[in-house]
Design a protein that fits this description.
The complex is a heterodimer.
Chain A (H helix, E strand, L loop, with lengths): L2 H28 L5 H11 L2 E3 L9 E2 L2 E5 L4 H13 L8 H14 L8 E8 L2 E10 L2 E13 L2 E8 L1 E6 L4 E2 L3 H6 L11 E11 L10 E14 L4 E5 L2
Parallel strand pairs in A: 1-10, 6-10
Antiparallel strand pairs in A: 2-9, 3-8, 3-11, 4-5, 5-6, 6-7, 10-11, 11-12
Chain B lengths: L1 H23 L3 H13 L8 H4 L4 E5 L5 E5 L4 H4 L6 H10 L5 E5 L1 H7 L4 E11 H7 L3 H4 L6 E8 L5 E6 L4 E6 L6 H11 L6 E3 H5 L6 E3 L3 E2 L4 E5 H8 L4 H10 L7 E5 L4 E5 L4 E6 L2 E6 L9 H13 L15 E10 L6 E9 L2 E5 L5 E6 L2 E7 L2 E3 L8 E2 L3 H19 L13 H8 E10 L7 E10 L2 E6 L11
Parallel strand pairs in B: 18-23
Antiparallel strand pairs in B: 1-2, 1-4, 3-7, 4-5, 5-6, 6-7, 8-9, 10-22, 11-21, 11-24, 12-13, 13-14, 14-15, 15-20, 16-17, 17-18, 17-19, 19-20, 23-24, 24-25
Helix pairs in contact in B: 14-15
The chains are: A alpha+beta, B alpha+beta.
Chain lengths: 240, 485
């Protein structure tokens, strides 16, 4: 047997296999996404869905995320409110000072962690509202928020719905592409009515719809696509 | 030198291929583990339809209103050397090669015929007749037509060329006749049963002088040994690695189990939710509830839906058997079956047996499942495991008629407060004794799982079904065995 010739053929075969695998991986990474997405995009266009944003890549496989709802003691916020009520009115705070106050409050409530992100400050009537969200591994956790209301330089109110990420499940599932998520909106859409899509974002989502009857001490956030339309309405499409 | 480089290149390329494949099928280890765990999930085979679809009671008349009654689970067929499907075998033999003539008869005529040496097999629910014939290969009978459903199959030596098929729930009585008598098998069965040491039963009309054919034993020696029980979830945890809730969720959600939402509440309740409510499994205080949206409507027929229900039960790892005749065994039986008028689903209600005796729950049912569009759409499981108990000598039970006589006033009062008697315009005109006797539908010995399960013991009781409400009395003393409703 000519071993040298056999080795050469084997090297050529392995090189070809690696090339095919690399190409497949590149295609997978490039998204969007599957070959079907091209057809889906045409169907979306025909259904008057205008995608006015860049679609994110499909993340591949993701696990569900176990979360703990409301992990902080409400009394911490109540104490802060009582203290602030005794403080004299001060003038308007600068944005930096407002954020520093809000950060300190979160710290005191044991809420400040690596994943917490500052969403911004806005005016609502007489009050200024500082909003925070939570993330896990860079993916926003929804619907999870704290809104701190300040008036006259004092903290006056908090609105919150909070989840602390605990751990990921040990098994992962394939997450649908953003195009497929958009396709799942079609059954409930009025065909003739145009729909502009201004945002598509991958999130971990703890739905409040079906679980309204429960008061869990542990819950699960599932990967989902958060789709925002031109009118600012938000829909969540489960990622599996 | 070149050959050496080629060898190294081959090794490097092979490793590279493996690495690329790993990235392509990302997280392969988890997938393999997932596949293995799915394979290792133990699901016992479902209880066979033929094992569970047994008459709830077989009544034998040895002539001259000398009756005995076998609860189906007591295994009359085995005791006379036949298979549990003995009656069906006899029907098949009789119908084979014969054209059957169908006639409608009155309840009174049926009663007269059954006063001769006869045998009646009663189910607790109506079964579609043509489906039953198809299931059991009674093709000749199935072609007869004209009978929608039945609860009872009967034979009487007064009409040896006939079978009687009745739906006692809808009050329809039929006679199926062949051209000649061919029932030697059933006659032999009656004779053999007559030779056994049977308890004597008489219709309630004989005791109380009112129009009621319900059979009561005159007196009876019974032993229902003390039996302890525990929640199925507790018993399950003692024998397996996993917990019952997780394993049930895995069995019911299949491949999607790992992508379901799990909620735990402060009281320990657990809820699994797939696709935001498409399928929901919850466990509260050891009771499981399953809800799934139906993806289609309509029924696949009694037998197909029953198989789906039994398959659903098997997937919770249930160890029960349908042939509850043998002692020392946890069994199940089909207690009721019929459409749910609210949603059109076929509803099956299963009960538990211990050593062949039925186990009643004071205010609950062990297993209820609804099937719609060829899938289980609702189920409620409140299951227990009973422990083996040593055999004890037979003991005189309280005579059931004496129990009724001693407690009719209590029963009447309760019927007036909680039963259909509430609807009566003027119950003061009713004679309590007659009212209770007329409304007695069933009497049987069995076990009771009390609502207050702190003792962990099943109680031996007489169970009286009166106007659809169960009344429990101590089997031996005849005293009331439950708290007031």
């Amino acid at each position: 047997m000519d071993w040298s010739r056999a080795k050469t053929i084997l090297i050529a075969a392995l090189l070809a296999t690696n090339a095919v695998l690399l190409a497949a991986l590149a295609l997978k990474a490039a998204g969007p996404d599957s070959p079907d997405d091209g057809l889906s995009l045409k169907i979306l266009a025909a259904a008057h869905v205008a995608i006015e944003t860049e679609l994110p890549k499909t993340p591949g496989k993701m696990a569900v995320l176990y979360v703990e709802p409301e992990p902080f003691a409400p009394s911490a916020i109540d104490e802060a409110l009582a203290e602030q009520a005794a403080r004299p009115h001060s003038g308007e705070l600068t944005n930096e000072a407002l954020r520093a106050e809000a950060d300190a409050l979160l710290e005191r409530c044991g809420l400040m962690s690596e994943g917490v992100r500052y969403l911004g400050a806005e005016r609502e009537g007489d009050a200024r509202v500082v909003s925070y969200g939570n993330t896990f591994g860079g993916v926003p956790l929804e619907e999870c928020f704290v809104r701190l209301y300040f008036s006259g330089g004092r903290f006056v109110k908090a609105e919150r719905k909070w989840y602390d990420p605990i751990r990921l499940h040990d098994k992962k599932g394939e997450v649908i592409s953003p195009v497929e998520a958009l396709m799942r909106l079609l059954p409930e859409k009025d065909e003739a009515e145009p729909l502009a899509i201004s945002g598509v974002e991958l999130v971990y989502w703890v739905s409040s719809d079906a679980a309204g009857a429960f008061s869990p001490i542990n819950d699960t956030a599932l990967p989902a696509w958060k789709i925002t339309d031109g009118a600012g309405r938000v829909r969540y499409v489960p990622g599996y | 030198m070149i050959e050496r480089v080629k060898s190294i290149a081959i090794v490097v390329l092979v490793l590279n291929t493996i690495l690329l494949l790993y990235f392509y099928w990302s997280n392969p280890a988890a997938d393999v583990k997932q596949a293995l765990s799915a394979l290792s999930a133990e699901t016992p085979p479902p209880v066979a339809v033929r094992d569970i679809l047994r008459p709830e009671r077989i009544t034998l008349n040895f002539g001259g209103e000398n009756y005995t009654v076998f609860d189906a689970d007591a295994g009359i067929w085995e005791s006379v050397g036949k298979s549990p499907a003995g009656f069906i075998e006899e029907m098949r033999d009789m119908a084979s090669g014969e054209s059957m003539a169908l006639g409608v008869i009155s309840r009174r005529d049926y009663g007269e015929v059954m006063k001769a040496r006869s045998i009646q097999a009663d189910f607790a629910f109506s079964i579609p007749f043509s489906e039953y014939c198809a299931e059991y290969g009674l093709t000749q009978l199935g072609r007869t037509g004209g009978i929608d459903s039945f609860t009872t199959v009967a034979y009487s030596t007064a009409s040896p060329e006939s079978f009687f098929v009745c739906d006692k729930l809808s009050g329809k009585y039929y006679r199926l006749s062949t051209s000649r008598a061919r029932n030697s098998g059933l006659e032999a069965l009656i004779s053999r049963a007559e030779g056994l040491n049977n308890a004597s039963y008489y219709p309630l009309r004989t005791y109380a002088g009112i129009d009621n054919d319900v059979m009561l034993p005159l007196d009876m020696k019974i032993v229902l040994p003390e039996t302890s029980y525990r929640d199925y979830a507790v018993g399950y945890a003692g024998t397996r690695d996993g917990d019952l809730t997780t394993d049930m969720a895995r069995a019911y959600f299949g491949e999607s189990f790992d992508f379901t939402r799990k909620l735990t509440e402060a009281d320990g309740s657990i809820v699994y939710m797939y696709r935001y409510g498409e399928k929901v499994l919850s466990m509260r205080d050891g009771v499981f509830e399953y809800n799934a949206t139906a993806d289609a409507y309509g029924s696949g027929g009694f037998f197909q839906d029953l198989r789906i229900a039994l398959d659903f039960l098997a997937r919770c790892g249930a160890p029960w058997r349908g042939d509850g005749a043998a002692a020392d065994r946890n069994g199940i039986y089909l207690k009721a079956a019929g459409p749910n008028p609210d949603n059109g689903a076929y509803r099956f209600l299963f009960g538990l047996t211990r050593d062949g005796w039925r186990v009643s729950y004071e205010n609950s049912e062990p297993f209820l499942v609804e099937v719609r569009g060829q899938r289980a759409t609702y189920a409620r499981l409140d299951l227990i495991l009973c422990s083996p108990s040593p055999p004890k000598p037979l003991k005189d039970a309280a005579a059931p008629f004496d129990v009724l006589v001693a407690n009719y006033a209590y029963i009447f009062d309760d019927l007036a407060k909680n039963g259909p008697l509430r609807q009566e315009a003027d119950i003061s005109t009713l004679d309590p004794f007659t009212a209770v006797m007329e409304r007695t539908r069933d009497v049987r010995a069995g076990y009771l799982r009390p609502d207050d399960g702190s003792s962990g013991e099943l109680a031996a009781v007489w169970v009286f079904d009166i106007d659809g409400l169960p009344y429990y009395f101590n089997l031996y003393s005849g005293e009331i065995a439950t708290r007031a409703r």
